[in-house]
Write a structure and sequence with these properties.
Blueprint lengths: L2 H13 L2 H7 E8 L6 E3 H9 L6 E13 L2 E11 L5 E14 L2 E10 L7
Parallel strand pairs: 1-6
Antiparallel strand pairs: 1-2, 3-4, 4-5, 5-6
Length: 120
């Protein structure tokens, strides 16, 4: 998977719904998010997305991609996501993609860390 497709997938996971999660997130995926239950598996994440309003816009920056071995892609980035009412959410994220077969990739790990609170 080339770099532009990786970033298209990451962005689509922020904006898309449960059907997209079922397509792109592996059932064995592990996620760590900054809200309870904090640690969840792929099926839990899909269920959570089904019950949560989606982001209307996301900006990805500070993007990095590593390919530690054939069939494995690890990404890190900063996300700024917005709901329709304009409320912003920022997090530093990682995702790991595993190739199942030619051009079929699934997310097997995703993590979000909130930036530190400023003292201003």
């Amino acid at each position: 998977m080339n770099d532009s497709r990786v970033w298209e997938c990451e962005e689509s996971l922020w904006l898309g719904g449960a059907d997209l999660y079922r397509e792109l997130v592996d059932a064995e995926c592990l996620m760590v998010l900054p809200e309870p239950p904090f640690v969840m598996g792929g099926e839990q994440a899909i269920d959570a997305v089904s019950d949560t309003p989606r982001w209307s816009r996301v900006i990805l920056s500070r993007q990095q991609i590593k390919r530690p071995q054939e069939g494995l892609i690890v990404v890190a980035y900063k996300a700024e996501a917005y709901k329709p009412e304009g409320k912003a959410y920022e997090a530093f994220c990682t995702s790991t993609y595993r190739r199942l077969e030619h051009e079929t990739w699934r997310v097997v790990q995703h993590q979000q860390t909130l930036p530190p609170l400023s003292n201003t």
